[in-house]
Fold each of these.
Amino acid sequence: MGINRICASIINKDTTETTISAVAPLVELFEMRIDLVGNNWPDITRQLPKPWIACNRLLREGGMWHGSEAVRKEELLRALHLGADVIDIELSTPDLEKLVPIIKKKAKCLISSHNFIDTPTFEELKTIIEMELAEGADICKVVTFAKKPEDNLTILRLIPEFPKARVVAFAMGDLGLSSRILCPLVGGDFTYAAMEKRLEAAPGQIAATELNKMYQMVQQ
């Protein structure tokens, strides 16, 4: 895997083929935020020239899905049949153990955990990764909120702690910016970026163009 593995988050129902074409050379995959895009999300995915992650985020984990849990899962399974390469499902999802085997028949399963309040201790974070792996995650994702600079080191330490696993780990917020950038540089599977400025899917997300420039500087 390259050190510049970027996943661009699509959150806008008006995302055009022109925008996608401009971002595609800068990233290795896309994230379709079903909960934010709305009903026309399948139309947008048909325009994606690279692998994509389907995500229908729970309200309690920072998402905007207001429908039933049953329909939320149905939309994720619909994405599975529409060609999603990865399905993002939260560790806190009810009946997770029933959904993971279904996902893994056709795609990779990313099991995620989000904390919008703070960054727990390293031992607590390790336990989350262990739980995700126990549930059958192909990719483990742990995202916290940085309240102090040291939180960046705490969250990034997860990546070398699990050398045989695919891990995405970083902290949100202004103080977590460095962990977003460093995640793939220290062995993380990828990091997230916004399609454009002011279209951030989470606090502290950087535009794909800016993040790509940073990685190009590192490689020079």
Amino acid sequence: MEHKGFTLWFTGLPSSGKSTLADDLAPKLRKMGLNVERLDGDVVRKTLTRDLGFSKEDRQKNLERVTFVAKMLSRNGVAVLAAFVSPYNDIRHWMRAEHETGNFILVYVKTPVEVCMERDPRGNYKKALAGKIKDFTGVDDPFEEPDDADIVVDTVANDVEECNRQIIRWLSEKGWL
């Protein structure tokens, strides 16, 4: 059976659990017979967008490039799992509009900033609070809660397995699986 491609875009604060969820979900979707590609902010920053910094303009260019790649893959039958902070509603609205086939699914990984600070494996929140990192989302640059999320998962109330069960259930109910 041939599956329709889609972009499952995970947004949330740094250290909210976006990559963890996407990494856990990818093999589950592959077992269901989907072609899956993972696009992760940290990996993309080392390759596709290594020429960009973290100003608002550069972050937007980063997301524009990734959106282009995700759109191309998804319209060719790939389930794209993209994990990016993508902090502003306007760019997320633009990303959705770019997926002209209606196959953009926004997953909001809802995690309080205090929890993200506790989880922070690289110490970026501490560096940002100390003034060593400027324009860090959640510290001195805002994260706008999505006003159009298709799926909201709470990583404090639910573990990775339950969050991904909720995502799979939604995908199945909407006919993507």
Amino acid sequence: MEFDLQKDLKSVLFSAETIQSRVKELAREIEESCQGEEITVISIINGAIIFTADLIRRVRLPVRLDCIRASSYGNETRPVHAPKIIDSVRLDVEGRHVLLVDDILDTGNTLRTVRNELMECSPASVRTCVLLDKKARRSVDFEADLVGFEIPDEFVVGYGLDFAERYRHLPCIGVLKEELQEL
């Protein structure tokens, strides 16, 4: 049986082709800003795993990879609690150039929390790269260094973004139909 989960989308904001084109541009921007130096990429999972994988495959620099797990949404469409770091990085980032990668920057709380934790490890630098920026939801003073796309205040899924751990595998990014935004 074949499922077409794209039928659950009210609209598609970015096609798979558009996403891959922008990921390629972001990789080029990372290469230019790092000037040939090794970077340590820290991916906030689960959401950023697909974006991170595609991004680092396109970066032509030495890359070390680690992941950090943070939670604030649960099974809701809005954060239900302050961000909690559930599993931290294992790599030593002291004196290293770190690129923190996330799927979406909305309130800014998660990225700020994770960035602050990384700063306690004395890296040479920490830059942030997000696939999506939802400025309308910002509740703290935080901006990403690199942004794939700005989006409206809509609940989006696909390409790593989920609702209750569903839809992450969609190759596009779309707005989930409102009637499906409840469990």
Amino acid sequence: MTDDSGSYSIEYSTNLRQKQGRGVVDLVVRAYDAHDTIVAESPVRFSARQNETIDFTIASEWKPQPTEFEKLKTALEPLLDQGSLGQLEEDNERQDLTFLSGETGFEKNLVARFVLAQRLLHLGIEREFWFALLGGSFFKYAEKNSLKKNLAIVSAVLHTLNASGVRKALTDSFNRREIPACLHERTEEWIKAFLQLVKRLPLRP
């Protein structure tokens, strides 16, 4: 992943030379967009030295594709009044998520994940963090339960997550291009804030 200035660094082992059965390394570097489409490719750098600089120029008409979170935000917020994300429900009486899924074309579990991330915002960490975390293996949206019940399940298991589990969920989410890459530098800050948060949460049976 490139940083905010567009710089990048890739490391490889010099043992690669031996594994290839020859005495030199030939390098080619490719840049991909959020949909894994190649947007730039370097010429082959034959007999590469130990340190090489390979620069790219991306065509001006190319624009980065929005992440899953950004697509959901763009699609959902125009359909909702300010603050109404916190009032949505999905149960026997109301099917707000079903309606939003039908209107936007997003699967209901993704809509639920976005809404739940909004509900967790009051805990003091950005929505993008919660959206990424809710994509981890510790939680699966249960359609048979109300949105309120799903939120209670999430709240009840947050204290069981450690730094390693949170980091993995964030890393996987970045790799799937679910949240903006520019937030990658917030990973350790988010993990620290989360661990401090769960210390303050009441334990549940």
